[in-house]
Design goal:
This protein has about 900 residues and is of the alpha+beta class. The protein has 25 helices and 35 strands. The strands form 8 sheets. Strands 1, 2, 3, 4, 5, 6, 7, 8 and 9 form a 9-stranded mixed beta sheet that branches. It has a 6-stranded antiparallel beta barrel with strand order 13-16-20-19-18-22. A 6-stranded mixed beta sheet has the order 30-31-32-33-35-34. Helix 7 crosses helix 8 and helix 10 crosses helix 12.
Length: about 900
């Protein structure tokens, strides 16, 4: 058996199939293109799915690849097993060879045996095969081609040896090659054989004989061309050829464990629990690095949520190893060092991936600083209570108040032998959603438009070349229903066979303008495309009557189209400049292109600094001043992508696409309208920048005429401000500085006065303190103080007491503020958070907090005195004494 490195195995595999006339195909992205059924690319065949189903054609019939894959989320989810077994991974590489209607079972089996035995040198006597129980042909071929005796070929059922990618899609019988690793790594059961769950008999390579496609109704029909899809995990094959018993000990992964040994000052193999954490981090560091490199950003939904979950799971295991500071970002460099040979994009994005990882680590560690210890305390209490279940309201509080993710809490609970009340948690979540809806968030619905797209109703778009044209009315809709005619002043939707009106798409708003016909005229209010191939003109008829098959003339509003085109070209420039200034991780995640502005949502982990915004605006205007002529052409999708054109994630593209190039600036797939040269924009001006979701920023900007109008508007505001201050615009800043200094001086004087009053009030209250059950207690009312000032007074009083409690109330603007603080021995006997809850409830409010400090509020100031009168009795009860005896008089 040859001892080969992981890199050598990858190269030898691909070179072998190159010699067998296979096209070597580069790994596709971890984000499946045009496949909404998958979160991530999870097998080598994903990029060929349309080929296997006969929906697409390739210029070759044989292919081989080494595909990067992620299995975490959805049907194929290995996340919970990672680190606990020697074989499971979130990220892995899958070696595969494919036949698209070319060779079938015989060649596939022959290639597999030849490569494993003759090229890699695996001992034939240790190899076994499995086949689908009804696949006689495969059974015979293993005997014929590999010389395997019957006793080393195992027939297994549909669960093990009938492959399907999902509930629907390509499927067929499969056959696996298995290696016997020896009794010492097995379960040592007398019943141990191929198919046992232990590690002795290890599946190396799966050959799928793709003969069928399963439809949504469960029926199976033959594929147009029987094909071959095979998959062999590179990590598993490398471990076998390197003679190690775990994937984590092969040279693709062990350097990551070694790096973690350095960071955590641990030694692999000394502690089984610590070893799990080291394996988890080694695996997750690869997944995080590759997902970020492919443009997935941490978020709270879809792929971004899975990435965040993987990253946070790694961080928690780092904390279990004693790491209290970010560390995963330091693993990125090691991943890149190992993997950048076959995946050079990692090297290009090394710094960006590291920065994104560090930012997410810091964000999560800040969240968990209070949350994790509290979660551990709650779980410990649940275990020690004997019930062994954490109630749903407590799970929700940890999630909602302290930011502990449910899946992380579930994993902690499993480790401590505690269950979570998931049903109760979901009830709390639903209640929160209900409260959100009832507090002013209205759910809007848009009536659906039922419209099919028969060939006679399709619309040819001519608006790239002209803003006017002739057409024929193919359909009329009024209130969503087809009609034969409509007259003024009705609002209708008109479908034309040819139109220069651009339909809303790709973030660009629809065109407006006019449609005229003999004896009539309609204003086009908006243009949409609710069905692929159909352009719908929403119109208000101004004059006359329009009928189906009417000949009409169209005129797009030229000024609005030009302004929209300016903002669309400006959007491309902005996208390119953001990537230049911030890094290649910037990806468009949404946009609006309108005549009066543009809005651009993009992936980035932090608010933009002032200098970054200035640089973005400066570079954009440089490109405008260069007056670069745009190049627009139509090309096959694969050719366009190979040329470096950027596709927008989530957009669906046809076989031929439109490529918009701004020379030296950007190249994007885009169906929108643009100016001829960047100089037509005139200028570009940023209007605002904000966060709209975790990891997503938004920029608003204007260009062209709107940019000029915005500048004049801001000049007017500056002049108005200067007039108010009776100053010239150039004197505005110095005048504001003086005003602010004056305000600061007055605030300082006010603070000194408040401090003096607080000290006087402290002495007054201290003279009236009482002793209850051995604890000094002060309570009183100090109106016109806000929560901050009330806390300050509480601190001043507490500092003068030896192990006492302070209860203060204040009324401002018809609101009640409560502060309760304890110190010294009182803190261990009297819980401030519980006491403030009691008094706040009397004033129709709520409160809570820690043992040393509690705060609350109320809605009824008229009940403050009654609440204060109850303080001695409440304190007495909470201290466990009898209500009544107090060592001196209280405060009214």
């Amino acid at each position: 058996m040859k001892r080969l490195s992981g890199d050598e195995i990858r190269c030898l595999f691909l070179e072998y199939f190159r010699r067998q006339d296979h096209r070597i195909v580069r790994s596709s992205s971890l984000i499946p293109q045009n496949d909404p059924t998958l979160l991530f690319t999870n097998a080598g065949m994903v990029q060929f799915k349309e080929v296997f189903t006969g929906k697409d054609e390739l210029p070759f019939r044989r292919a081989a690849s080494c595909q990067k894959c992620v299995r975490a989320g959805g049907k194929h989810n290995d996340l919970e097993n990672v680190g606990r077994t020697s074989r499971h991974h979130t990220f892995f590489e899958m070696l595969g060879n494919f036949s698209f209607g070319d060779y079938f079972k015989e060649k596939a089996i022959d290639y597999c045996w030849d490569l494993l035995v003759n090229e890699f040198g695996l001992p034939a006597e240790r190899l076994y095969a499995t086949v689908y129980e009804e696949d006689e042909e495969a059974f015979f071929l293993w005997q014929k081609l590999a010389g395997l005796p019957e006793e080393r070929i195992f027939r297994l059922g549909e669960k093990d040896n009938f492959w399907a990618m999902g509930d629907t899609g390509p499927c067929g019988p499969c056959s696996e090659i298995v290696i016997d690793q020896g009794e010492e790594v097995g379960c040592r059961s007398p019943e141990c054989r191929v198919g046992c769950n232990c590690d002795r008999f290890l599946e190396l390579w799966n050959l799928v004989f793709m003969q069928y496609e399963r439809s949504a109704d469960g029926r199976i029909r033959p594929l147009p061309r029987p094909s071959i899809d095979t998959g062999a995990g590179l990590e598993r094959l490398t471990a076998v050829l390197q003679g190690v018993k775990s994937n984590f000990e092969c040279d693709l992964l062990f350097p990551l464990i070694s790096r973690m040994e350095e960071l955590a000052d641990r030694r692999y193999g000394e502690d089984p629990v610590g070893d799990v954490s080291l394996r988890v981090i080694a695996d997750h560091a690869r997944a995080v690095t590759f997902l970020l490199a492919d443009g997935v950003m941490p978020s709270n939904e879809s792929r971004g949520y899975v990435l965040r979950r993987i990253l946070r799971r790694a961080l928690r295991h780092g904390m279990m190893l004693g790491l209290e500071r970010p560390f995963l970002y330091q693993m990125v460099g090691t991943v890149v060092d190992i993997m950048s040979g076959p995946y050079p994009e990692l090297e290009d994005k090394r710094e960006t991936i590291s920065r994104l990882t560090l930012h997410e680590e810091e964000r999560f560690m800040h969240t968990l600083r209070n949350g994790l210890p509290l979660a551990e305390e709650e779980l410990r209490e649940a275990r020690e209570s004997g019930k062994g279940i954490l109630p749903g309201d407590k799970v929700f509080r940890l999630y909602d108040t302290y930011g502990v993710p449910f899946d992380l809490l579930a994993e902690m609970a499993r480790e401590m032998g505690v269950s979570l009340d998931e049903e109760g948690f979901q009830r709390e979540m639903e209640e929160q959603r209900r409260r959100s809806r009832s507090s002013g968030h209205l759910e809007a619905t848009i009536p659906g438009l039922e419209l099919e797209a028969p060939a006679h109703a399709s619309s040819q778009f001519i608006g790239y070349e002209t803003l006017s044209g002739e057409g024929t009315v193919r359909a009329l809709l009024q209130d969503g229903k087809p009609v034969e005619e409509a007259e003024a002043p009705a609002e209708v939707e008109i479908v034309l066979d040819r139109t220069p009106f651009y339909a809303e798409s790709g973030g660009q708003v629809g065109d407006r303008g006019w449609i005229t016909w003999e004896g009539g005229k309609a204003e086009v209010l908006d243009t949409t495309s609710p069905v692929r191939g159909v352009t719908l003109h929403r119109c208000r008829i101004k004059r006359g009557k329009v009928r189906r098959e009417e000949k009409v003339s169209c005129q797009v509003d030229e000024e609005l189209r030009q302004s929209t085109a300016c903002h669309h070209t400006a959007t491309h420039i902005l996208h390119a400049v953001l990537r230049q200034v911030l890094g290649d991780h910037v990806r468009q995640s949404g946009s609006l292109v309108a005549p009066d502005r543009l809005r651009f949502d993009f992936s980035h982990f932090a608010p933009l600094q002032e200098r970054e915004l200035e640089r973005v605006e400066e570079l954009a205007n440089q490109h405008i001043r260069s007056n670069l002529t745009l190049q627009i052409e139509e090309r096959p999708l694969e050719e366009a992508l190979a040329s470096g054109a950027m596709a927008i994630f989530g957009e669906r593209y046809g076989e031929r696409v439109r490529v918009v190039t701004i020379p030296g600036v950007s190249k994007e797939l885009c169906g929108g309208t643009h100016v001829r040269a960047t100089g037509e924009l005139g200028l570009f001006k940023l209007v605002g920048e904000e966060g709209v979701a975790a990891g997503i920023r938004r920029i608003e900007a204007v260009a062209g005429r709107e940019g000029w109008r915005r500048i004049k508007e801001e000049e007017g505001l500056i002049q108005a401000a200067a007039d108010r201050l009776k100053a010239r615009p150039s004197e505005l800043l110095s005048r504001l500085d003086k005003l602010m200094q004056s305000l600061k001086d007055q605030e300082a004087a006010l603070n000194r006065m408040q401090e003096y009053i607080a000290l006087q009030k402290r002495e007054e209250l201290l003279r009236q303190k009482v002793v209850i059950e051995g604890i000094e207690v002060v309570w009183g009312r100090v109106d016109c103080l806000g929560p901050r000032e009330l806390r300050r007074l509480s601190d001043l009083i507490r500092d003068k007491m030896q192990g006492g409690a302070v209860v203060l109330a204040s009324s401002t603007d018809d609101r009640v503020h409560w502060v309760v603080s304890t110190s010294g021995s009182a803190a261990s006997r009297l819980h401030a958070g519980r006491l403030v809850r009691e008094v706040a409830e009397i004033t129709d409010g709520k409160g809570g907090g820690r043992a040393e400090l509690g705060e609350g509020s109320g809605r009824d100031p008229g009940k403050i005195d009654r609440a204060l009168t109850s303080v001695p009795a409440l304190v007495k009860r909470m201290l466990g004494g009898k209500e009544g005896d107090v060592d001196s008089g209280g405060i009214g």
